[in-house]
Amino acid sequence: MTMKKKISWRSFLPPICGGELPAKATKKVAAKQSSFTRISQLDLSNPNSLLSEDLSISLAGSNIHMFTLGEIKVMTQTFSTGSFIGEGGFGPVYKGFIDDKLRPGLKAQPVAVKLLDLDGTQGHREWLTEVIFLGQLRHPHLVKLIGYCCEDEHRVLVYEYMPRGSLENQLFRRFSVSLSWSTRMKIALGAAKGLAFLHGAEKPVIYRDFKASNILLDSDYNAKLSDFGLAKDGPDGDDTHVSTRVMGTEGYAAPEYVMTGHLTAMSDVYSFGVVLLELLTGRRSLDKTRPHREQNLVEYARPMLMDNRKLSRIMDMRLEGQYSETGARKAAALAYQCLSHRPKQRPTMNEVVKILEPLKDYQDMPIGTFVFEMPDSSPVSSNGHHRQNHGHRHSRSPNSPLTENGASNGNRRPTSSPLHPRSGGRRP
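Structure for Serine/threonine-protein kinase RIPK, as requested:
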């Protein structure tokens, strides 16, 4: 859980991102590391401004690699269709592999490679924002940026590969095995720790686009936040908020942010409450296929969260009752707080972490009764007719694969501003 040295925006020169660095330049940067400060978001607006030094110089010592386009092509087999794994607002995502011979000291590993779509909804600014934040921040619940490519018009990001994809795919994909109660709470806790780290950094970071598709899962369902293209530095000094153009995803953005453009850490807390509600109910934050009054999950479900009887009706049916009732009540109460229309009444992410910590280990789950069903065929009676034994079958095991009611899967491509419709697609 570390944070890299902060860096000055003056060191960026996008038009000449590629190329080798002279030894003198590297030494010069090393000597200046102690005076670096994190870049200002205002400096991200002009990708063609002539600045003094190369991007890679500014990231010296961050363990972020600057790859050539040729190396990216080797990783992805020249962006082959067999390597394609999804697409989002940034552009297509490919699964690649770094051979141990590609770079000295860089271990062999699978990677996710995001290629900026020049005609897409995001651009150089978002690409640069992601490089800056993930180049400076390190935490077990933030996806690891391995490197980038900035060659001619090409903008590429290389991340650690997350084999279970996004929470959105795991939670809503058809024909998938339902996530267990403990796994859902583990994911919620990991994502909460990631947000708490960002909010508690030396210079706080507001994530601004917290949603199920931006939570990636490793093989053990450890959650990591990805896609920092919309992240913002928190307010300075005595400022209470950051004023900004409204960006994010419809259904997840806090109402006060949508109304005023005033962004605070509590905006992230609200978005976390939406995802926690999705984990409890198995429903999407916005679902136009449902009856009109149920299409907006927060409007429909929040009034029921503090009523135990009504809560049981909106819990995800795919859990088949195999969840801790005490834990569900506590998680529902937490979601209710996070979704308050009054930002000051929402808990901080540190408080959220403390509440979630024990929930995945609660053991007060109902145990079903197994009833054996006799075969349909029975011995023939003396009168020539079959006797039938009508047994009773117990409901499916909670571990058996089930289809989701009303869910849809698909790598949907989002649009971005001001509030892009829900994004889909698998992320790295």
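The two ends are 21 Å apart (CA to CA).
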